[in-house]
User: Fold this.
Amino acid sequence: MNGMVPVTTQHNDNRRTGANLRETALSPGSVGPATFGRLFSRAVDGHVYAQPLVVPDVQLPGGARRDIVYVATMHNSLYAFDAQRAEAADPLWHTSLGPSVPLPDPEVGPSGYRDIAVEVGIVSTPVIDPVRKVLYAVAFTKDRTGYHHTLHALGLADGREALGGPVRLTADVPGTGEGSQGGRIAFDSRRQLQRAALTLANGRVYTAFASYGDRQPYHGWVLAHDAATLAPAGAFITTPGTGLGGIWQAGQGPAVDEAGALYLITGNGGFRTDGSNLGDCVVKLHPDLTVADWFAPFNNAQLNAIDADLGSAGPLLLPGTTRLAGGGKESRLYLLDTAALGHFRAGADSQIPQSFLVCPPDAQTHHIHGGPVYWDFPGGPWIYLWPENAFLRAYRFTGGRFTTTPVSISTTTDPTGVPGGSPGMPGGALSVSAHGADPAGGLLWASHPYRENANLAVVDGVLRAYAAADLRREVWNSEQRPERDRVGSYAKFVPPTVSGGKVYLPTFSKTLQVYGLLR
Assistant:
């Protein structure tokens, strides 16, 4: 219906390219302040950290068919809205997945949880199985019995529980690290946050965890559940003999290759050169969540000591290659070979294809969050990054390596943040729309804080569109006609979703903004 393209997982596909290559209505020639703007908004009941997902032509219980955009909130709500019609303001359905955890939370300590405001509920982007016609989501709740993470499978058409769910998430693995008892470590929802996007692969739903408020003891976890029955199907812990090593990736989901192997990047935590503990590492897992391979930077100990998480962004698997790209708070981009990630080599990372700084270190003010996005077109392929306190940039992939000087860079917009603050945090959350490889049709979409640092505050946001083949050309932004297009409060780390000539952008103003061509 109307050219809508399914967007069923975070950043569009399991390689996490962030690209919709079937967009025919939006292009640098059609998008501008006179032709493109906000069409309508949809009200929701909380902040939104999850990327909106889209499924065209869903048959509703009464027989009608609708294109639907799905929105998950921190109030533990799932909404299904008509993705096309401005007049259809009410949700097609709305399901609550239990009471959220209000903030401040005494469990986090006297300083509170400053990275998140108001409440904690559904943090991660859900994932959709179009064959089973269900949406999987994880809710975080607190009741008189404690804290819980619960996996739900909801019908796309009606929002009702399906597949015998919901199920509480639990795990228990061998380990002697922090929080262990009798040589075992139990998954403890009181210490974990499910921020990374859900991943559907190998007939399983994968959920990855980092810390709740940085309160120890915690570990990085990946849990697997059968996609048909929700039965437990595996568990992996990053630091069984030490601690920490969370998997947060600023909301990016684990990537998956054609053989079903999962790739993820961990944060600060315990590391051992034998690969038994994998803090600040790139990790490859078999479908059953046993370790297949890993890479640790030569300066792993230094990254850990200065809170320069490698895992502040997720991996990108470059299509048609065995290469993985990723980077973290150091602002260093790594290019790895998925056939041999490289393990650890003291003194230098000479065993891997490439690594380089995309920005000077500058006291760790150029973090990379979320992950790069990818587009292949004549003159490409390019990956796109927008680090903190820096310009949007693209790097060309050629000869099995990246050009270390940006092939294109925007010099028109540089979020400078607050004087004395941590400038530009978290940089830009990116998506690509294009009509195949046509260089005249490519757009790079970016959501970021408009003026202020979003690290520990709710601030205004802005949405921008650039010609993806020439980042010097900013063709539109939401502040050119603010009375019509202003975003509201910035939704931290969340990339825009592009489908069927529309751009769906959630906010912390309890709204979903919908932009498109003006009629």
In short: Residues 416-423 have pLDDT under 50 and may be disordered.
